[in-house]
Amino acid sequence: MLNNCDPSRFLASKLENVPPSGIRRFFDLVSDIDDVVSLGVGEPDFHTPWHIREACIHAIEEGETSYTSNFGLKELREEISNLYLLRHSTHYNPENEVLITTGVSEALDIAIRTIVNPGDEIIIVEPSYVAYTPSVIFSGGTPVPVKTHVENNFKLVPEDLRSAISDKTKAIILNYPNNPTGAAMGKKELELIADIVEENDLLVISDEIYECLTYNKKHTCFATLEGMKERTILLNGFSKAYSMTGFRVAYALAPPELINAMMLIHQYTMLCAPTIAQIGAIEALKYGNSSMDKMVREYDRRRRLIVNGFNDIGLSCFEPEGAFYAFPSVRSTGLTSEHFAEKLLNEQKVATVPGDVFGESGEGFLRCSYAASTENIKIALERIEQFISDLE
Amino acid sequence: MDNVDKNILEILEQDARTKPDEIAKLTGISGEEIQEKIKRFEQAGIIRKYKTIVDWDVAGEDYVYAIIELKVTLQRRQGYQVIAERLYKFDEVRSVRLISGDHDISLTVRGKSMKQVAFFVAEKIATLENIQSTSTHFVLKTYKEDGVILSETEQVKRLPITP
Ligand SMILES: Cc1ncc(COP(=O)(O)O)c(C=O)c1O
Asked: Of the four listed, A322, B21, B115, B156, which is most buried by Cβ atoms within 10 Å?
């Protein structure tokens, strides 16, 4: 007899391969505690610049509330195309090489679904953003992790990549500047990766959502490397650079054949990205640069504060070059990431995210977001220092 | 103006009490260098003054502010500068601006009461030789002062942990 009361019998079996989210678990822990200072937030603490919000309010008043073209507003696609021409001297045709999506989250999902056949292997560079592995599993592919290490400042080492490639490998997902490590890769380093990509005829999904948040370093757009444009799906968005996480708007840039295929899924599953958010995105690209520059300078100051702070306390922390995360090591304490983070939360009310949530190679580290006020970073550092001295 | 200079000024603009050592931590430059740079900003007049924005309403001190718009007649060999000087020497006058439009000069005046401000304008300002007419607007409430929003408590809307 079947137990007719248990709805879980309806679930698809592939979901069993997706482990419960470690972020979710920590979120539940934090929610039970008052007065927590959080370094656990993966989104900017700045409000969306007012002129962007105001442009959206105005658009609502004007009644710009219908669907847009499946591809997204033409003006937005043109602005993005211009941006890449100016910033990276590379041309994407706004007619058929630019797709506006509902966040990089959607772009990532449809990019993976567009290319994966059952059994295809997708290489994921770990520690990695939490959505990559599940997205590959949802689409029936096999995620293959490649570890990166603090000794290399969490940059992808060519030999490690090479040894992860098999004849089933279809693509590799890159994310520099990186969530959770804050690592960035320079042109020369990426060129070595590009050589391997070419040799093995792979595709690259490059999630460059943190492009604008780089410090003392020029961002290299993967698609601009020689021979890479034809084999890169570039993802970028407005969430981080312009503090627009809740708007849900981003874009994918790729050759027409790939954008067309992504469009096929997008038009039936999303129809179009939120119209108001697209209008906000146009405003951001046209007039948002000075507010973005100001936010980047502020992040950079906090980055110094937090990295030096950790090193002073005795949690060694390599210098992150992008995004808004510091990734200090807690190995010196003898605790696992999870144990450290949970104990720290309970004893000193500082929320962080244990590194192993982002893959095995994140074990021994904590992700600490410096998208928090200088004041809160200082308080958090003091509490962590107290926590460590209590351990001894 | 390079990035470091901009950083220092932004930090001080947000909180004038930030110590050189702290600015050093935030910018990666030594405390002595920061001190030297700040001295140079002060000498060059880039940094004019350090001040505190006080919400006197909350403090319970009932100050009255008024914006006074003035029309002036210029006299031979006497530009706006001379008039401005006459005006800004009064302690009651908090700001003096040359403006475009219907009026020539705009003042903010602070007093203990409406009566006091009105008397001040009538006796000291309106009677000045070059002043053709005055138009007084009393301030009923200040919502934002010098880039700072007054009496607003920020609510944290972000979730404490996100990917
Ligand atoms: C690396 C990375 N990719 C994608 C996303 C999701 O971005 P979006 O808000 O555009 O969906 C995030 C957000 O945390 C991220 O860190």
From this structure: A322
> Please, are residues A108 and A346 in contact by the beta-carbon 8 Å criterion?
no
CB-CB under 8 Å, B6 with A129: no
In angstroms, the CA A340 to CA A343 distance is: 5
The residue ranges of every structural domain in chain B are: 3-43, 56-143
The helix/strand/coil state of A352 is: coil
Contact between A234 and A222 under an 8 Å Cβ cutoff? The reply is yes
Q: Out of 3.30.70.920, 2.60.40.10, 2.30.30.40, 3.40.50.300, select the CATH number for domain B56-143.
A: 3.30.70.920
Are the beta carbons of B53 and B147 closer than 8 angstroms?
no
Q: Do domains B3-43 and B56-143 have the same CATH topology?
A: no
Cα B54 to Cα A86: distance, rounded to the nearest angstrom: 45
Token pair belonging to A46: 């700045």
CB B30 within 8 A of CB B22: no
Whole-number Cα distances in Å, A114 to A137, A200, A347, A389: 13, 19, 46, 51
* Model confidence, pTM: 0.87
Give the model confidence (pLDDT) of A143-159 as tens digits. Answer: 999 999 999 999 999 99
CB contact under 8 A, A42 and B25: no
- Output the CA A354–ligand 1 centroid distance in Å: 18
Of A31, A131, A294, Cβ closest to residue B163: A131
How far is the C-alpha of A305 from the C-alpha of A302, rounded, in Å?
Answer: 5
pLDDT in tens, A14-44: 888 888 888 888 888 998 898 999 999 999 9
Taken in order of first residue, the domains within chain A and their CATH numbers are 11-48+290-391 (3.90.1150.10), 64-288 (3.40.640.10)
DSSP assignment of A138-176, as one string? HTT-EEEEEE--GGGTTPPPHHHHHHH--TTEEEEEE-S
Residue B117 DSSP symbol: H
Q: Can you spell out the DSSP letters for A98-139?
A: EEEESHHHHHHHHHHHHHPPTT-EEEEEES--TTHHHHHHHT
Which CATH fold topology does B3-43 show? Answer: Arc Repressor Mutant, subunit A (1.10.10)
